[in-house]
Amino acid sequence: MNKQSRFPYKLYLVLSEADCKGRHFLKVAEESIIGGVDLIQLREKNDDLETFIRKALQLKEITDNYEIPLIINDNLEIAKKVNATGIHVGTHDIPPVAIRELWCNAAYVGYSIEHLEQLDTEETAVSDYLGISPVFKTPTKTDTITEWGLDGIRTIRKLTDKPLVAIGNLDVHNIKSVIDAGADCIAVVSAICGAPNPQKAAYQLKNELLK
Ligand code: TZP
Ligand code: MG
């Protein structure tokens, strides 16, 4: 199986209610899917369990309707409970090896990497895609360690066949260079959630990726 058939997605929306700037996150989600988003991750850092589950179930109705994957950030309990398509974790979250043991139905386990040494680990080996996080410094997430840049993507591309999902200050002006550097998929928050028209923003991003 080649990497495209394992992860055939180009445009990934990382969604949280707070980042939607007062608009309803479900409306942003639906509009972005119509515009061209291929999969959505729900990333809620401050919700209590009950709220996160309620939002995840609401979002799942939409992603199911449009037959796109729903990925849950960090929380395995919620991912399993809402029967999400997969989970995305970082270096300090539940490790992918443990996820595989505890959730055999996960279609996608995404793993963000901060150091090149992580490429040569069991955690990377059992992951379905790697998050290159962040490519560029971003005000949306400030507790990051490595700013990979385009050179970082090129280096990682040479070292692994895993699908690479790039994230961090990506927009319609820089995503082509990120794909050219070796990323398979682009993940964004602000470029869609912060846009005046999320559907149009998603359409323009997707169009740029398909060029
Ligand atoms: N992980 C690394 S950077 C980031 C996350 C969740 C936030 C990206 O947000 P934006 O607004 O697309 O720069
Ligand atoms: Mg995390």
From TrEMBL:
<dbReference type="InterPro" id="IPR013785">
    <property type="entry name" value="Aldolase_TIM"/>
</dbReference>
<dbReference type="InterPro" id="IPR022998">
    <property type="entry name" value="ThiamineP_synth_TenI"/>
</dbReference>
<feature type="domain" description="Thiamine phosphate synthase/TenI">
    <location>
        <begin position="11"/>
        <end position="192"/>
    </location>
</feature>
<comment type="function">
    <text>Condenses 4-methyl-5-(beta-hydroxyethyl)thiazole monophosphate (THZ-P) and 2-methyl-4-amino-5-hydroxymethyl pyrimidine pyrophosphate (HMP-PP) to form thiamine monophosphate (TMP).</text>
</comment>
<protein>
    <recommendedName>
        <fullName>Thiamine-phosphate synthase</fullName>
        <ecNumber>2.5.1.3</ecNumber>
    </recommendedName>
</protein>
<dbReference type="InterPro" id="IPR034291">
    <property type="entry name" value="TMP_synthase"/>
</dbReference>
<dbReference type="GO" id="GO:0004789">
    <property type="term" value="F:thiamine-phosphate diphosphorylase activity"/>
</dbReference>
<feature type="binding site">
    <location>
        <begin position="138"/>
        <end position="140"/>
    </location>
    <ligand>
        <name>2-[(2R,5Z)-2-carboxy-4-methylthiazol-5(2H)-ylidene]ethyl phosphate</name>
    </ligand>
</feature>
<comment type="pathway">
    <text>Cofactor biosynthesis; thiamine diphosphate biosynthesis; thiamine phosphate from 4-amino-2-methyl-5-diphosphomethylpyrimidine and 4-methyl-5-(2-phosphoethyl)-thiazole: step 1/1.</text>
</comment>
<comment type="similarity">
    <text>Belongs to the thiamine-phosphate synthase family.</text>
</comment>
<dbReference type="Pfam" id="PF02581">
    <property type="entry name" value="TMP-TENI"/>
</dbReference>
<feature type="binding site">
    <location>
        <position position="73"/>
    </location>
    <ligand>
        <name>4-amino-2-methyl-5-(diphosphooxymethyl)pyrimidine</name>
    </ligand>
</feature>
<keyword id="KW-0479">Metal-binding</keyword>
<feature type="binding site">
    <location>
        <begin position="41"/>
        <end position="45"/>
    </location>
    <ligand>
        <name>4-amino-2-methyl-5-(diphosphooxymethyl)pyrimidine</name>
    </ligand>
</feature>
<keyword id="KW-0808">Transferase</keyword>
<feature type="binding site">
    <location>
        <position position="74"/>
    </location>
    <ligand>
        <name>Mg(2+)</name>
    </ligand>
</feature>
<feature type="binding site">
    <location>
        <begin position="189"/>
        <end position="190"/>
    </location>
    <ligand>
        <name>2-[(2R,5Z)-2-carboxy-4-methylthiazol-5(2H)-ylidene]ethyl phosphate</name>
    </ligand>
</feature>
<keyword id="KW-0784">Thiamine biosynthesis</keyword>
<feature type="binding site">
    <location>
        <position position="93"/>
    </location>
    <ligand>
        <name>Mg(2+)</name>
    </ligand>
</feature>
<keyword id="KW-0460">Magnesium</keyword>
<dbReference type="InterPro" id="IPR036206">
    <property type="entry name" value="ThiamineP_synth_sf"/>
</dbReference>
<feature type="binding site">
    <location>
        <position position="141"/>
    </location>
    <ligand>
        <name>4-amino-2-methyl-5-(diphosphooxymethyl)pyrimidine</name>
    </ligand>
</feature>
<feature type="binding site">
    <location>
        <position position="112"/>
    </location>
    <ligand>
        <name>4-amino-2-methyl-5-(diphosphooxymethyl)pyrimidine</name>
    </ligand>
</feature>
